[in-house]
Amino acid sequence: MYWTEEALEKSLEKIRRNIENIGERFPHVAPGGVYNDQGPYFWVSGFWPGLLWLLYQETEDNEALRLARKLEDDLDQVLDGFMTIHHDVGFMWLPSAVIDYKVTGNEKSRIRGLKAASHLAGRFNLAGRFIRAWNDEVKPDSQGWAIIDCMMNLPLLFWASREYDDPRFKHIAIAHADTVVKNFIRPDNTACHIVSFDPETGERLESLGGQGQDGDSAWARGQAWAIYGMAIAYRETGKEEYLNASKNIAGYFISHLREDKAPVWDFRAVKDHRWALDTSASACAASGLLELYSLMEDGPDRDFCYDQALAILKGLYDNYFDDSMENQSMIQMGTVHFPAGKNINVPIIYGDFFFTEALVKLKHKPNIF
Ligand code: GLY
Q1: What's the pLDDT score for residue 236?
Q2: Which atom of ligand 1 is nearest the CA belonging to 91?
Q3: Angle between helices 279-295 and 349-363 in degrees, nearest 10
Q4: What is the pLDDT, as a whole number, of residue 43?
């Protein structure tokens, strides 16, 4: 059996076992091999349902379907509670409700996805042409903040435009992506994590470190969000700027990986901080590279993209995949937030998600979510 098939089989087996282990919880990190319960409000709450949907699509496991639906129902309290909802509604409802609707045609799921998209569209700042990140309760005085991660929420807006047959959601996604190209991506093909704008005038003020080392650094997961998010923005619009942004940042990302193909948490981390890795970033980048590859014209760049995605996944499988069924997680050594000292070198649910998603893409085709 080829290693990608073996890796996918093992991943699916872990998900199957976790139906009981994790059950109706919303996992985030698994230090020591056991996933915690972060609750439905945190931005990662779509990834466990997303893993269940991957299992269901591969095997038609009805328990996976039942549990994914239960978690989707539980997410309604977040949607209905409204006040705490943030920008990350794409991360939460694309791999839960929207995929449910795509796979089963469930109308209730469609409405959930459209509500989430309406919320995201409502966060658009017209003066600065960006989607606002977070809320003041979590990040005080952040009315003018936008973050690179939000590129991964834009597919929800593109999807909503198609569902409504109305371009206004797509217009917001394009305006935000244009702002990112102009204000986040540096001449050296790296992306900032946070850019602060004046929320009244829209003027760009500064770039902030956020989860990266500082305002000038290259936070590994932020680069992965940019590679993947820009590839999808290109898929949805055909705008060459997005294709180039994705390709250029991918070039930087690939050339700064370690020999084992894992990234340090920030490519520009100082020497004393380079012991922390972020495998979730390389899992996400690999899945994004497969998306990018599927959109490129035949030629050496396209082949390079595919080969590198495969090499990254092989590096993850050979060096960071935990085979033991006692360990609930798959991919070890991810880092959530190094500067805050939170969850460093631990398994993270979105590392597992993007790893499995990439393997499914290799087996079938991209454009799953
Ligand atoms: N979206 C937050 C993170 O990447 O940790």
Answers
A1: 98
A2: 1
A3: 30
A4: 98
Residues in the ligand 1 pocket, defined by CB under 6 Å: 43, 149, 211, 221, 336
The residue from 88, 100, 266, 352 that is catalytic is 88
Active site residue 88: yes
The C-alpha atoms of residue 307 and residue 80 are separated, in whole angstroms, by: 44
Q: What is the DSSP letter of 191?
A: B
pTM of this prediction?
0.97
SS3 content of the chain, % helix, strand, coil (to 5): 55, 10, 35
The minimum-distance atom of ligand 1 relative to the CA of 280 is 4
Taking phi over 0 as left and psi of -120 to 50 as alpha, with beta for the rest, 297 belongs to: beta
Determine the pLDDT at residue 80.
Answer: 95
Q: Which residues of the chain have pLDDT under 50?
A: none
Question: Measured in Å, how far apart are the chain's first and last C-alpha atoms?
Answer: 27
Q: Which of 152, 221, 342, 344 maximizes ligand 1 atoms within 8 Å of its Cβ, making it the mutation to test the pocket?
A: 221
Q: 62 exposed, middle or buried (CB, 10 Å; 0-12, 13-18, 19+)? A: exposed
C-alpha–C-alpha distance, residues 235 and 237, integer Å: 6
| pLDDT of the residue at 61 | 98
Minimal-distance CA residue to ligand 1 atom 2: 149
Tokens of 279: 């495998």
C-beta atoms surrounding 26 within 10 Å: 24
| Predicted pLDDT of residue 325 | 87
Beta bridge partners of 348: 29
What gap in Å lies between CA 212 and CA 349, rounded to an integer?
Answer: 20
**pLDDT value of residue 1:** 75
The answer to whether residue 188 is catalytic is: no
| CA 284 – CA 355 distance, rounded (Å) | 7
% pLDDT > 70, the chain: 99
Closest ligand 1 atom to residue 336 Cα is 5
Active-site entry in 61, 100, 149, 278:
149
